[in-house]
Amino acid sequence: MRYGFLAIAVILILFRPIELAWGQSDKDLPSLNKEGEFNQIVELGPLSNKESILNDPLLPAIACHVREKYGVQSVILYGSRARGTATAKSDYDIIGLNKSGKNERHLEVFNGAPLDINIYDIDTYNLAESKVNPLFWDEAVVLFQQHHEGEQFIKGAKKAFYDQKIPSEKKTNTIRLLSINLNRSQENTIKENFYRHRFLAQALAQYFPIHDLVYMGPRKSFEWLKKHDPLTYAAFEKALTPNADKETLYALLERVIGPEIHRYHQDQRKLSKVNTKNKKYVLSQDPLLPEIVRYLKTNFGAHTIILFGSRSQGVASSKSDYDFIGLRGVGTPEEKVRDLFKGVYLDLHLYPEDIIHGMNMVGLLGMTGGATILCQKNELGNYLIKRIKNVYNKGFFVPERIKKEIVDEIKMNMSKIDDTVGGRYYQNYLLSSVLEHYFTLRNRYYIGARQSFMWIKENDLSTYQAFEKALKPGANMRSVKELVDRVIDTPQLPKS
Question: Which CATH architecture has domain 283-392?
Fold first, then answer.
């Protein structure tokens, strides 16, 4: 009997005249109710793809299958099948709404077609955390609904997206991160070129939270910018050209920051103007260090203070932060403090001394590249540094499944590189992420660009040279491919 209804459904789809129009949810549009008869397709956006949807013989069967198997009150199609960009291998992205009290995902194959089904509870699902962005909702099609659950859900998800409120502190940290990476990219060295690619990769993702929106992935995000903020889209187009100059990059930063630009200028004005010449930083000649140590002891109760990062390694600039680990007698398990002291920023990680014997050392691996004990109690500083170095040298186990996923991701990003704004973005994203992937694929910890490049130069010179070539502005695809080939080729490397 069911197959008879499906046959009728297909015939109706193929031969019944259909009219689709914005907002006309009361039109007699095809979908399925429980008996297999057509009810409504509710179009909530400019559906340019109506022929491929209405002539897809699987859709009525999929709608019935999802409704009966999962007991849903509404079935929604979105993604490439709704958008009209699907290939023969594309899956069907389906949302089912019910009142089961559960939010779950199911991947299955139905009549040879891959289905990606997300089941959401209408009453408890947090629309503000929806992973499906509003541009998908613009193209969504309600295949079935008992009342108006599908329409209401889609409208609620779109509203939640545009009602995002990002905390002010998070915006400040985001702006600081972007400006740091841009400021680090001023010279034509391997590290500075790396930060240039990182800035361009991060700028797109960070634009959205700065503007109280949710990042939607590269393709959708660029579509959104082109439609809603064409000036920023144009700034990305210019900045993503191979040889964009510093002024172009700063122009992009100002567009990305937008109404929060005052935070950036305030941050820059607070930075010290002392020692602005590019002279080599010498730790033993730093007049501020004794004052900082007294300040940290008095205000935070630290009895053991360890300096690490660029100041400890002797590669700091006049604007570099001071990075510290502090141990004290009592306190919360971990406290992170960022403080402005006499025109320079102090980044302090505070720990009570009684937890260091059992604490996770992974978060402190940045100290392996050079740390200086400024003061200590009972040799605790020496003990902490020794434990951290042991963890780093030991490395960690990465399952082959995870390694395969990383390699697949690298290859996928490679395949998306072309001469469009999105394709150039993927090149920057690939080059900013492949350094960390290099270490993960070799069961080693990634501890930041500077120390990572130093390690590769010492232990894998050919790959270091491949990074140098691929990271240069305007590098050709041959250089990028040579780097990728070296990264995903994982012979056993010596441990430091």
Answer: 2-Layer Sandwich (3.30)
